[in-house]
Amino acid sequence: MLDMKRFFLATSATLAAVLTFAAAPAFAAIIELGDTTTPLTKPVCPTTGGCPIILTETTALQIQSDGTTYPTMAAHNGRIVAFTVSPATVSSADINGTAKTKTKAAQPGLNATYGGASEAAITVLQASTKHFYKVVAESPLFQIQPYFGHLVQFVLDQSLPIAKGEFIALTVPTWAPLLSVDLTKSQFLWRPSRPSSCLNYTNQSAQLMTGDNAQYLCFFTGTRVEYTATEITSPVPPPQPKGTTKKKTHRRR
Fold this sequence. Notes:
Blueprint: H1 2-23, E1 30-33, E2 55-65, E3 68-69, E4 78-85, H2 93-96, H3 106-114, E5 119-127, E6 132-138, E7 142-143, E8 152-162, E9 167-176, E10 179-180, E11 189-192, E12 213-215, E13 220-221, E14 224-225, E15 227-233
């Protein structure tokens, strides 16, 4: 009788363990690509000199933030469902490099110089060799101008696929006040989609089409592009419990 009781308890425990294992959920994770120890913040003009906070006519890839290399690289397969930016309130300093008084008068001048109102899209990039990055997915363009001075998240009507090892960049075909400057040079670095003429800010280099391949040879230290992207990872099937694998049978010849 005692042996039967022990057998029953052992069998019950094994069955409970198997059921618990089988019922273990396989949830997707929500990851904010580009998020590091410093939260997104509105860019601020330096106390001296000009105010180089305007990102213009390019696709921007943050290479390092808070010392973290490739903070916008996906570690898992998944889908991009939203992106977040933190644009500054534009001042006249963004045009003439001297005044610090905030005014709406700066916006028409920037619109005229850079081909339209402030807008941006989130872009999925695939790296190849010699700093080449190819567009594998891209969102529609969103108007940034109505949200100056505010943290804003744009939800995508159609999510974008992203694979492990691919990158999230921000495409700005016109202009956007999204560059935080005068940061620690060894901790922050970004690259635009320009192979040369790094300081030619009116040279259109934004990657706007899937399949577009560009070389990112230029780089800027001590600067952060204020964007992140929200990824929902693809669920991974849980491991199968031991003993469920069918053994192969070999027939005798």
